[in-house]
Design brief:
This protein is of the alpha+beta class and 258 residues long. It has 9 helices and 9 strands. The protein has helices at 6-17, 27-34, 38-50, 68-80, 83-98, 140-147, 151-161, 175-188, 230-250; strands at 25-26, 54-56, 63-66, 101-108, 111-118, 133-135, 191-194, 201-209, 215-224.
Length: 258
């Protein structure tokens, strides 16, 4: 790789400052934050404004915000995003860290569909496949996604479903019990499943958000019970949360959410 170009680096440093606070800055603000000479900042801001990467804030002389060109670039980036492909890459990185099976799934009605999967390297592991559909309430990814729905949407989906099917003796089949579990998941930000879809497997899952902060998927780590204990559960919950954050960043998420 070639060397970094200082002028380009400084210009990008300037633009990235606008990701913080209320998104508006003056030249003195930029000078103070980056520790650059005033003349350098003036030249950078003038150049970025001339190319529509920055624009002056109406009725606030001397203050700037990101311009339309940054929106156009961001929109083109978003158009090229592939949740399944990005999910597969992050799932692979997580699996390499924990040596367990990692899934990324989306919600459809009251089912989850696995869109990415990386297998554990262990001989004893969870058997599944990308494209598989399971009842959401029986899986950690599904419960994470259900917990992320607006209350009225969750009510509508559960009212249409009727009886909740059981995949194992541990599956939740009562609506009130499911709602209670989802409330706990919202508070913790992590979903757990203990032998609810497979009698020999437990899982943890975390939410994946898009650029608007919406939960669009969930990432889970599945472990056979022979390798499962409280210490391992806590460790994998932290790893699942990190993996979900990494995937969210790939989708353009910058923090917060709804």
């Amino acid at each position: 790789m070639g060397r970094l170009v200082p002028a380009v680096t400084r210009a990008l440093d300037v633009m990235e400052l606008f990701l913080e606070g209320d998104g508006t800055l003056s030249a003195p603000d930029i000078t103070r934050k980056l520790g650059l000479p005033r003349t350098t900042v003036h030249e950078l801001v003038t150049t970025l404004a001339a190319r529509s990467y920055l624009v002056q804030v109406p009725e606030q002389p001397g203050r700037f915000r990101l311009g339309v060109r940054t929106y156009q670039l961001g929109s083109r980036y978003a158009e090229q995003l592939d949740l399944a492909a990005e999910g597969q890459q992050v799932a692979r990185e997580v699996a390499e860290t924990c040596d367990e099976t990692v899934h990324v799934a989306i919600l459809e009605d009251l089912d989850v569909i696995y869109i990415a999967k990386v297998d554990s390297i262990h001989a004893v592991r969870m058997v599944s496949a990308a494209g598989r559909r399971l009842p959401a309430h029986c899986t950690s990814v599904g419960k994470m996604l259900l917990a992320s729905l607006p209350a009225d949407e969750l009510d509508a989906r559960l009212d249409e479903e009727g009886e909740l099917v059981a995949m194992t003796h541990n599956s939740i089949t009562d609506h009130d019990a499911l709602r209670s579990a989802l409330t706990e998941i919202r508070e913790r930000g992590i979903a757990h499943e203990h032998r609810e879809s497979n009698p020999d497997v437990s899982c943890v899952a975390a939410p994946v958000r898009d650029s608007a902060g919406r939960v669009v998927a969930a990432l889970s780590i599945s472990v056979p019970m022979i390798r499962w204990n409280e210490e391992r559960e806590a460790e994998l919950a932290e790893l699942a949360a990190k993996g979900a954050r990494d995937l969210s960043l790939r989708l353009g998420h910058r923090g917060g959410g709804r």
